[in-house]
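Reading a protein record of the kind used here takes little practice once its layout is understood. An example of such a record is reproduced below.
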Amino acid sequence: MKVLRPFVWAIVLVAGFLYVTSAAHWNVGRLLQPVRSVGRLWSEPTAAETAGFSADEQNNIGIYKSARDATVNITSVVYREDWFFRVYPAEGTGSGFIIKPTGEILTNNHVVSGTAELTVTLADKKVYKAKILGADPRNDLALIRIDTGRKLPSLPLGNSDTLVVGQKVLAIGNPFRFEGTLTTGVVSSLGRTIDTEENRRLEGMIQTDAAINPGNSGGPLLDSHGNVIGINTAIYGQQGSIGIGFAMPINRAKAMLEEFQQHGHISRPTLGIRTVYVAGDLAGMLDLPSQGGLLIQSVERGSAAEAAGLRGPSRMVIVGGFQLGVGGDLILAADGQNIEDNNTLPSLLNHKRGGDALELTIYRNGQTQKVQVKLGEAPQEL
């Protein structure tokens, strides 16, 4: 082998260096090529990909924009006594929604009842004092008003009689003081009956899985057209939403509003009797029809029942260790509906107003007869 001269070695070394670096650059470029491609796969989507919303999302957004400004936050102050009989103010919050540009607002009665001070906060954060115009405790409804000196956005009232299970609903309110919160769901069931903490029975309620939490009470439940079809009223359980919420059908509120418009107040009907439900063996022991009914125990003086000629007991007996008045009328049916328990008659009265007629089927002295009653009107509960 021949020995290369030094300058030849230099040329060889330079040529080799240039070859190696160029090859390395080419290979690195090839290695990085797929990395850059992979990077594009995981990069943010282009504007064209994020610009569109689904039809359902667009519906949600549109309804929220139109209903948010008409949904309000209601704050009530009630004065209570502590263990040392010291009076202190206790604050509660709820929701409501504007139904007229002049400032009329619908909400739940339990949101405003017993309050010493009532304020409404609009979506623009402005605060106004509110006045209670009327209340319907039987249906947990209340109508209040604020005076802003300007026209306000309002919500249209829909028809709750046409609701079907499975249709979409949206709830807006102020849960846990988080104002303007939107939740969505469906009508889970219809015609539910629930008992409230105030020992009232609410019937015909809308059940929904749209999240309803403390602070949502009084807010609107809307359909996919933005119409109010219910008033968010209660949740199942004490801590928060578990997918079972209840709303008062808006048609119940519309009946209350119609009465207020016609008479300037909201009436509560009274019959003026105290009764006990008897049936089966107990009814047989008292020589009454086994189908049972409401046995009248007392009739208030000056009441609608007294005016209609209903009769109370003529004597007292002891049955099963309890004192019971007998000899009075046994109410078998009301407006053609058989009396099945203690709740049948109150449920019928929930759909009546003061001055309405009520037909009772009674059992008296071994005979069945019908009695027409013109219901009285109880004082307002605010």
The chain has two domains: 56-264, 268-378.
